[in-house]
Amino acid sequence: MAELVTMPKLGFDMAEGTLVRWVKAEGDPVEKADVIAEIETDKATVEVESGFEGVMFRHLAGEGEDLPVNAPIAVVAAKGEELSDEDIDALLGEAGVKAPQKAAPEEEQPVKEEKAPETEAAVEMAEEPDVTPAGGTRSSPLARRMAEDHDVPLTKVEGSGPQGRIVKKDIEEYLESMRAEGREEEAEAVGKTLQPLTAFTTGEIPEDEVIAMSRLRQAIGRRMQDSNQNFPHFYLTRVYKTGALMKLRKELNQLLPEEDKLSVNDFILKAVALALRQYPNLNASIEDDKHIRRYGHVNIGVAVAVEGGLMTVVCKDADRKPLRLIAREVREMAGRARNRKVKNEDIEGSTFSVSNLGMFGIDEFAAIINPPEAGILAVSAVQNVPAVEDGELVIASRMKATISADHRVTDGAEAAEFMAVLAEYLEEPLQLLI
Q: Domains, the chain, ranges and CATH?
């Protein structure tokens, strides 16, 4: 029996997505859980897996198209099943969506009057003014990001998508054509991504620069503004003794292969998950004005720095997993996030988040809560600092962490107790192995 594949909802705030690429061509066999397409959302390019088994009978949407959630994108038929256009129309009707408009046969299409080159160029200039990507040039989000990264003016690129839409392959072909024409120096300059400017004190002052915000940056801005304005944050900071943790990590990593070595963050994720089991009000969110939802699962969101912003990948049931499995899962999900190849399950379902900037040497910071969660832990660098132990001044390993919590869900005393229990796990880390 034929099944309709629709644009998936990859996030509670997703309204539309861009079909970046078909992985399964028409006629290809499809098994359940096969990746059939790549969809770009505000957050990432996500691989869409099939929930059906059969044959990719027909694509209902083209690469580069922006489509709303639940819009039909393909039909998967049973092996050997043949469908007419009327059958597909009926399938779409049963799903409550309109059938896609069919293109008229070539002999029935009106013949366009051929224009003189001068007239055609003038029309093109009128329809495609020299504007920035934010100014209205028809292009997919992926193509706009590539154009921005490689400093390519979109008005110089000919689009091959629907209605002249510029898609990824158009940008790639443009860069390749520059090299083929012997313009290697220009191509090399265009191909370089933006890098931090070197410091200077003399010479010409550069002009102001206005750049388009990526969809990811816009999404981050909306969510963080909403959280900062509507969530009553409070903050608590605690210093943790990390000498025993660093010693245990070193001993364990001597026994593990390179690809399975543990990071400090892996220990923190496990400790946070165990502490949340004891303080369910922090593993929660506001349901409505009168109810709080305490989550049964402890799913820790891990902030990952990606090109153009941040993304949160989710370690599910972190309180039940051994450290080695946590390390492997987070490493793999972070790699997919940086390559913009995350799966839907990688980024959905977090109940509490951890943001670690220790690798940048940050001494202390506070994070904004990731809606709709009730809290987030900001982790700073592990450092050797002067400390007093047993009445003596010594050099000791220490780390600061700051919890940001939603005051509608919890209070300072409860959050302080959570931070104290977290200290028990981090300062006696053998508990994390039991």
A: 3-94 (2.40.50.100), 133-191 (4.10.320.10), 218-433 (3.30.559.10)
